[in-house]
Amino acid sequence: MRKKYILIIGLGLLVLLLFPFIGVIDVNVDSIFSGDQASFIFWKLRVPRTILGFIAGSSLALAGLIFQNIFKNSLATPYTLGVSTGASAGMVLGIKLNLSLAALGLNGLYIYGFAGALISISLIMGIAKVVKSFSIYTLLMSGVAINFFFSSCIVVIQYMFDFTQTIAILRWLMGGINPTGYEELLFLLPVYIFFVAMTFFLKNELVIASAGEDFAYAKGLDIKRFRIMLFIVVSLIIGILVSFVGPIGFVGLIVPHISRIIFPRDFKSVIFSTMIMGGLLLAFTDFIARILIPPAEIPVGIITSLIGAPFFLFILISTLRQKN
């Protein structure tokens, strides 16, 4: 197990240290302190981009792990539950209406993305309250329905854009990591630290939750309240994240499964592996996206979808075979 830890940590450090030096314009160690163009590219573009990619990927992977545990569904992610689609709809509406409301030194559109995620969560919880059931089935099916609803809203709003706006918003909907400087990181880093700390703190409860409602109640865990609390908190965190990087799919689906294969018996190690490998995956795919067809860039969401779609089918087929 120690060798696995060393390998995962080593890969994480390699990504964070190496990727900022490589690109259309290669940067060497001597030039990063020179104050010229290479120094600007390194410190203002590539370093924050690599770190943001790591934080985003790590957060998406942890969210997928938590949702898969509390809903006992290997295909549950923030995207299948409608949270990211709600955030995307908020962003798209803000762009269409040309809304501007800066806060904390950040682009006001982030606020509308977060508001969209909040509305999505409220609708899901409202449906559960109306039917008087907060079961796994109710929350999952409500999330899927809300996902389709907000997807339709996005299409309607897009239809009202002119051609130039449509291309721009389509690119954003494919996901992208394009910070200029460290303002976004300074805002997201405390959220990320809280998320990681919360996940490790609740590791035992997450294991109990994955074993079923009867077992959870026998262990003294109010599973329904626990599930609702985590769903709301994690969804809000993902809403914030999607507002910054767009709806990047499949990271939360792929990484938890790989982590469980690497550490099949130790959930604490699964959390650690998911946190690191989620960051690695998104930082790596973003690296590929910016060097594959220079000087143009491919939206990183396309790369993750190309990797994730076959993996999704593999999980689906494996699940169906086990049931049969």
Secondary structure: elements and pairs:
Elements: H1 2-18, H2 37-70, H3 83-96, H4 109-130, H5 136-159, H6 163-173, H7 183-201, H8 203-210, H9 213-218, H10 223-245, H11 251-262, H12 267-291, H13 300-323
Helix pairs in contact: 1-12, 2-7, 2-8, 2-10, 2-11, 2-12, 3-4, 3-5, 3-10, 4-5, 4-10, 7-10, 11-12
Structure description:
The chain is mainly alpha-helical. It has a single domain, classed as ABC transporter involved in vitamin B12 uptake, BtuC, CATH 1.10.3470. It has helices spanning 2-18, 37-70, 83-96, 109-130, 136-159, 163-173, 183-201, 203-210, 213-218, 223-245, 251-262, 267-291, 300-323. The radius of gyration is 20 Å and the shape is globular. The mean pLDDT is 84.
CATH-assigned homologous superfamily: ABC transporter involved in vitamin B12 uptake, BtuC
Shape: globular
CATH architecture: Orthogonal Bundle
The stretches of 5 or more residues where confidence is low (pLDDT under 50) are: none
Give the N-terminus to C-terminus distance in angstroms. 34 Å
- SSE run: HHHHHHHHHHHHH
According to DSSP, the number of beta strands is 0
Total domains:
1
What is the gyration radius calculated from CA atoms? 20 Å
Beta-strand share of residues? under 5%
Number of helices: 13
Q: Report the biggest beta sheet as strand number plus sense, adding barrel if it closes.
A: none
Helix content: over 70%
Keywords:
ABC transporter involved in vitamin B12 uptake, BtuC, 324 residues, mainly alpha, 13 helices
